[in-house]
Amino acid sequence: MSTVLVVEDSLTDTEVLTRYLRQVGLTVFSVHSGEEAQARLRLQKPDLVILDVMLPGQSGFELCHDLKTNDDTKQIPVVLCSSKGTEVDKVWGSMLGANAYLVKPAFLTKSEKMRY
């Protein structure tokens, strides 16, 4: 995988995640809402979408469902990444087609967790 679309409304989380993904050699594009993600996906199909659950407007769950039921995007892996870590949320994400569910701050290293 070389291109990742990060859909995250928190600027701090976006910057930390983007920095980490770029350090491992990935190209990263970020947007801050489901609607912006839909517009970006019309222009370019990434190899992976990392999607926050709690977004302004369309939720990450709704966007995941839209992506997985659309013939143009259903093959793109979706990783839900949220501070909501209940089993219900994880099961719901799976039922909507998410390929994985990470609980924040899963992508932060120990030193980054201490800074934020």
What's the layout of helices and strands?
Elements lengths: L2 E5 L3 H13 L3 E5 L2 H10 L4 E5 L7 H9 L9 E5 L4 H9 L4 E4 L6 H6 L1
Parallel strand pairs: 1-2, 1-3, 3-4, 4-5
Task: Write up this protein.
With 116 residues, this protein is α/β, with parallel strands linked by helices. It has one domain: Rossmann fold. The chain has helices spanning 11-23, 34-43, 60-68, 87-95, 110-115; strands at 3-7, 27-31, 48-52, 78-82, 100-103. The protein has a 5-stranded parallel sheet with strand order 2-1-3-4-5, sandwiched between helices. The longest helix is centred in the N-terminal third of the chain and has 13 residues, at 11-23.
CATH homologous superfamily (4th level) name? Response regulator
- The value of Rg in angstroms is 13 Å
Strand content: 15-25%
Structural class: alpha/beta
CATH class: Alpha Beta
Question: How many helical stretches?
Answer: 5
The pLDDT mean sits at 89
Helix percentage = 40-55%
Neighbour order of strands in the largest sheet = 2-1-3-4-5
Fold-level CATH name: Rossmann fold
Count of separate structural domains:
1
The biggest sheet amounts to: 5 strands, parallel
